[in-house]
Amino acid sequence: MPRSLKKGPYVNESILKKVQNTKPGTVIKVWDRSCTVTPEMVGFTFGVHNGRQHTQVYVVENMVGHKFGEFAITRKFISHGGKIAKDQAKAKAAKK
Prior knowledge:
By secondary structure, the chain is an alpha+beta fold. It has one domain: CATH 3.30.860.10. Helices cover 23% and strands 15% of the residues. The chain contains two helices and three strands, in the order αβββα. It has helices at 13-21, 83-95, and strands at residues 27-30, 45-49, 54-58. A three-stranded mixed β-sheet has the order 1-2-3, covered by helices on one side. The longest helix has 13 residues, at 83-95. InterPro entries: Ribosomal_uS19, Ribosomal_uS19_bac-type, Ribosomal_uS19_CS, Ribosomal_uS19_SF. One of its GO terms (biological process) is translation. GO terms for molecular function: rRNA binding; structural constituent of ribosome. It comes from Candidatus Falkowbacteria bacterium GW2011_GWF2_39_8.
């Protein structure tokens, strides 16, 4: 659910200053995942922190209005475990 319309979108002021002071080719590191993407940020590459590392996100026009956290996944899915999954993996490996 977005913020109240009377409050406006949440945008971190320090991120806007970094956008104004840097050139579009550099990566701007961001830890604030709840910051809203604004039109001034289009064309810049941001390193959004996912809890372990910075994921590079190139901002395009369709991202305006969304949060940075939506573009840097925090969980890594490997696979579901169990005996059936192991048997399927063995069968798949033997097939190749």
